[in-house]
Design brief:
The protein is α+β, with helices and mostly antiparallel strands. The chain has one domain (27-136): Hotdog Thioesterase (Thiol Ester Dehydrase, Chain A, Roll). It has helices at residues 37-47, 59-62, 65-72; strands spanning 28-34, 56-57, 81-89, 93-94, 98-109, 114-123, 126-136. The strands form two sheets. A five-stranded antiparallel sheet has the order 1-5-6-7-3. A two-stranded antiparallel ribbon has the order 2-4. Strand 5 (98-109) and strand 6 form a beta hairpin. The longest helix is centred in the first third of the chain and has 11 residues, at 37-47.
């Protein structure tokens, strides 16, 4: 039996591909992410750790594509390869926290269509985590 949950059901959001030329270095995009108890529980269920009590949220729950898609109001162009991701976690946050995700295009190189996106997650107390990801944009396009 397949169970629907916050991570497995469709968000109802529709995202169009973002073209490489729309990614201007220095441009910043923002979105909110609610770290609800249901979201954290569903993540634990999918990872096989649902029985473990959680008072704080793992960065693996929020350092995903969804905050980036919401901030950019689009998705990675089809065929994009995620090459690298680096996380700098400054502190834990409790379940129920609302994070602001600010995604900035750090660099864009035209010959390889390489893009570096940095997402800084903050709450009312300041920076929680910084995620820096490198992509080959549309690299494996059909």
């Amino acid at each position: 039996m397949h169970r629907q949950g916050p991570l497995t059901e469709r968000t109802g959001e529709h995202f169009e591909d973002i073209p490489f030329d729309a990614l201007t270095p220095g441009r910043t995009f923002r979105a909110e992410l609610h770290l609800t108890e249901d979201l954290v529980r569903e993540y634990g269920r999918l990872c096989g750790t649902a029985d473990e009590p959680r008072t704080t949220v793992s960065p693996a729950v929020y350092c995903t594509f969804l905050p980036t898609f919401r901030a950019l109001n689009g998705r990675l162009e089809q065929g994009t390869v995620h090459v690298e991701q680096r996380l700098e976690v400054r502190r834990a946050v409790p379940v129920g926290t609302v994070l602001e995700a600010e995604t900035t295009v750090r660099s864009r190189q035209g010959t390889r269509r390489q893009v570096v996106l940095e997402t800084v997650f903050t709450d009312d107390a300041g920076i929680v985590c910084t995620s820096t990801s490198t992509y080959l944009w549309g690299f494996a396009r059909p």
